Amino acid sequence: MAFAATKRPTKSKYEKMSVRSRVLAWFDRVRESLAAERIRQVSKELERKIGLTRSGQIAVVAFVLLWMTAFIVAGTALYIVAYGCLFLVMASYALARRKMSLEATREGLFPRAHEGDRLDVEMQLTAKKRVSTFILEERVPERLGATVKVPIPSLAGGKTVSHRYSLRCARRGVYEVGPLVAVTSDPLGLTQRETIVAEKFELLVHPRIEFVSDRPLTRQYEDPPIRPPVSKPWPSGLEFYGMREYVPGDDLRRIVWRASARVGTLMVREAEQGITDHVTIVLDTDRTFHSRDGFEFSESFEMGVRAAASLAVRHLREGYEVRCESNAGAVTRPARGPQAQMQVLDAFTRIEQSREPLTKVIMRLITDPKRDAHNIFITPRLGDIEAAQLRILLNRGVSVMVVALLWDEENAETLNTAAALGCQVAGIHPGQDLATALYHDIGAGNR
Questions:
Q1: 70 in the same domain as 112
Q2: Does one domain contain both 407 and 283?
């Protein structure tokens, strides 16, 4: 009996490449793009510093080549042509105008914006005395849009012209808009002069905030007969747990005066399960385990920043004391109340990836004598060392929640590791709604 030969599916050229070849190919593409971008930046900076346009730079190069050729072959005609090129450049410098008497203002450009916002900016330019043809140029970062160039034919003294443009805040970060300059050129177009009419403007684009849910617990222990060794009440309270004696550090507003007079000692009200008002949010900034969607962009890291900022804002609005940490150190000082939201969002706007491992920040929490905080770890990966350190925290009775950034199939193991330790667990996929992901948390921390 003859069997028909089965044809194996052919693999693509990319699938046949080894991991090392893929990495090297990726670095080659990045290097080429960076080299081209660097050349463009150097060319623009050169034009601005020396005041020569590309035509002027070509004229200078032509002078050097012609002069060297004339020196080698002893050609008088070439000397004349070479010095003619140099004379044109010098004449252009002399004919180009110097400073112009202009004033400018911007409206609609705010110091802070949220990711996804659109800013409609209006520039108003006023001339102190008559000026002729020039170009009004607003230098805008590429992530916000393209550089704005407005040709102005002429402007009489005391007159004002306006121009509108839009900025799209697609990604969080710190950007410099401007400076706003007036660019003039000579009749030959070999040189240019710039007059700064408005200085640079720093724009902070905050990460997108979503309404998320989280119930902070001081301890993982449940109701009596096992009682948390250290317990502090939630400011607004959940369900009444009982009363205990006052200890230094307790909120005086929780004292039950009638019970204290009856017993003869100060008694404070306590909520069930030792609800705390201290929250520590830890964002894993180790670039080794985050996605690489570009040389300066990581989707998983941006997703983690949005989750951390959303949780921080939620707890600040509810009156908690929020402390934000990264692998390299503290992101912000401990803050409390809605008025601290701007400080926290500014810090998350400036945060970047690093080479420091997650183990460093967990070790700082282990050595911290305070145990009355609800700890939230936002990370794409939990290794054996990190899991062992979290076990130490859990054995001390500290509340731990792990938010796994599931950008790859390998990161799904983080959920199983955290659930096996007894942590509250939630997973976030790219593009997933944060409110849904953090509400339906799974594992041992189900509520």
A1: no
A2: yes
The reply to whether 213 falls in a domain is no
Q: Quick one: what percent of the chain has pLDDT higher than 90?
A: 23
Q: Please tell me the predicted confidence (pLDDT) of residue 352.
A: 92
| CA distance to 131, 227, 359, 370, 393, per residue, from 271 (Å) | 73, 12, 33, 19, 23
pLDDT digits (tens, 9 = 90+) for 181-206: 888 888 788 888 888 888 999 999 99
Q: CA 405 from chain center: how many Å?
A: 17
How far CA 221 is from CA of 16, 228, 362, in Å, comes to 52, 6, 21
Number of domains in the chain: 4
Do the beta carbons of residue 318 and residue 277 sit within 8 Å? no
Do 313 and 440 belong to one domain?
Answer: yes
The predicted pLDDT at position 224 comes to 39
H, E, C per residue of the chain: CCCCCCCCCCCCHHHHCCHHHHHHHHHHHHHHHHHHHHHHHHHHHHHHHHCECHHHHHHHHHHHHHHHHHHHHCCHHHHHHHHHHHHHHHHHHHHCCCCCCEEEEEECCCCEEECCCEEEEEEEEEECCCECCEEEEECCCCCCCCCEEEEECCECCCCEEEEEEEEECCCCEEEEECCEEEEEECCCCCEEEEEEEECCEEEEEECCCCCCCCCCCCCCCCCCCCCCCCCCCCCCCCCEEEEEECCCCCCHHHECHHHHHHHCCCEEEEEHHHCCCEEEEEECCECCCCCCCCCCCCHHHHHHHHHHHHHHHHHHHCCCEEEEEECCCECCCCEECHHHHHHHHHHHHHCCCECCCHHHHHHHHHHCCCCCCEEEEEECCCCHHHHHHHHHHHHCCCEEEEEEECCCHHHHHHHHHHHHHCCEEEEECCCCCHHHHHHCCEHHHCC
Q: Are residues 288 and 390 in the same domain?
A: yes
Domain edge (last residue) among 61, 95, 129: 95
313 with 172, same domain? no
pLDDT digit string, tens, across residues 325-336: 999 889 988 888
**Residue 308 belongs to some domain of the structure:** yes
Do 417 and 349 fall within a single domain?
Answer: yes
Flag residues of the chain having pLDDT under 50. Answer: 1-17, 19-20, 220-237, 442-447
Q: Can you give the pLDDT at residue 320?
A: 85
**Joined tokens for residue 199:** 């200085």
Q: Return the structure tokens found at 250.
A: 């307790």
Domain span at residue 371 reads 278-445
